[in-house]
Design a protein that fits this description.
- By secondary structure, the chain is an alpha+beta fold.
- Helices cover 17% and strands 41% of the residues.
- It is built from 2 helices and 7 strands; from the N terminus they run E-E-E-H-E-E-E-H-E.
- A 7-stranded antiparallel beta sheet has the order 1-7-4-5-6-3-2.
- It is globular.
- The mean pLDDT is 90.
């Protein structure tokens, strides 16, 4: 879990999104950021992207906060946030759950 100092100088985004599973064997689970929010992040912060549209972030669902990255999905034209198994298990999340997310970039 990041400490409060890790959130200093970060831009906070809040959104709700449905948890979805990528259609492949052993696939990852994601939430998609809204297209308008993705456009804003990309236009203002694209300089922070690393390879393949990856951007470091801190995510928070309920009381659980963790370091992660968002990825720009060129097919969907939005950023996606992976929700790894450890997080899904701790929060008892299932595919199609509607989640309220805080994202710090």
């Amino acid at each position: 879990m990041p400490d409060d100092s890790a959130l200093e100088n970060k831009i906070k985004y809040q959104f709700s999104a449905q948890l979805w599973k990528y259609d492949a064997e052993n696939a990852w689970y994601f939430v998609s950021l809204a297209q308008k929010m993705s456009e804003e992040i990309r236009s203002q912060l694209q300089w922070q992207e690393e390879g393949w549209g990856k951007m470091k972030a801190i995510a928070k669902i309920r009381d659980l906060e963790w370091k992660t990255s968002i990825w720009f999905d060129s097919k969907r034209q939005c950023y996606v946030l992976p929700i790894k198994a450890e997080i899904r298990k701790k929060l008892s999340l299932k595919e199609k759950d509607q989640l309220k997310i805080e994202l710090f970039i």
